Amino acid sequence: MSRINTCFDRLSKNNKKALIPYLAAGDPKLETTLGLMHALVAAGADIIELGFPFSDPASDGPVIQQAVERALASGTSLADVLTLVSRFREQDQETPLVLMGYLNPIECMGYRNFAERAAAAGVDGVLVVDMPPEEASELLREICQAGLDCIFLVAPGTSEARAREISQLSSGYVYYVSLKGVTGASHLDTDSVRAKVSELRKYCSLPIGIGFGIKNAEMAATLGAFADGIVVGSALVNLIAELDADKSYTQQELLEHITLIADMRQALDSLNG
Description:
Order of helices and strands: HEHEHHEHHEHEEHEHEHEHHH
Number of domains: 1
Number of strands: 9
Shape: globular
Radius of gyration: 17 Å
Oligomer: single chain
CATH topology: TIM Barrel
């Protein structure tokens, strides 16, 4: 059983929800990202989505776009992110890590080379934002052969037939995009999300994580009531933007800077009474 499956199985048995924060690797520098990864786990994160930088993050809003620009400016590459994962695994062998990003850097590295190096580093899953399921067979084959989970997005406008196909191709969990637009947008219709997730559950046996537009603990709890996991991206990345690239931070300093995660953990745990 993969680390992702083990994580969701443990949470389900304890009637708890997964808290899945997103980091842009290399923002403001790789050493800070490593510290943040450990701080997130200490704050209650269950899975970490680690974004690898690409120059044209079309699905992301300005907050994450700027984070990616800072990461690229610091010289971060996909190979650097894989090394970062290996360093994280020196201390943490349990927390699932999902690489999230765009296809171009993976194509440059080569599908098989990427999948094998990711698995060797300690990656558990891959989410390629701009890889449609109709064109994913070659990459999906390499990812699966390497023992990694392949996670796909389902959006509000996704048809039932397409959502069924995505559910069949996915492993680990399905990422439901809670709104139409880019990351960090604010027009979240909770009732609509609830209805879509309920419909998705009729034919999707995987855990469902909800992301995009989740800004605070209250929103996390509201959506967590009918999700298996909550993904927080822009709200966290916005806090990280305040960090000084020239400073080295202790884990305690980082924890004090990202109290949003501990607040979300508490809010999600409160759903269990």
